[in-house]
Amino acid sequence: MAATLKLEIVTPEARTYSEQVDMVTLPGAEGEMGIYPNHVPLMAQVVPGEIVVRKDGRDYFLAIGEGFVEITGDRVAIMTDMAMRAENIDETQAEEARRRAEARLAEKLDDDEAARVSAALAASLAQLKVRRRIK
Q1: Which residue of 18, 31, 61, 116 lies most exposed, with the fewest beta carbons within 10 A?
Q2: Would you state the pLDDT for residue 42?
């Protein structure tokens, strides 16, 4: 039997993913990371973007927000503020959130508010990228 990884993705609301997978590609703060079984142990920051999960010869796509990942030889644990499977993303809502965030960023905002709006923009862009990939 081929080696696999246990991929677990947890948000403040729920465990959104927990399955054995062949490979995971995720967006790290230092760039995209490809994780295979027996990967060297690592902790890293993840940034809003797309996760590609390879399982049984097929690729599955998820959008994630900011967070952290802990990688061991047989497990990838992601703690993030947002995670959505491609098929669960409402493109109309994500597009509206993107427009609202871009409009807010055009206003004069304090640093904290600008950071929150930028994070919302990044999350909506990640959702749109993932959703449009499966069309």
Answers
A1: 31
A2: 94
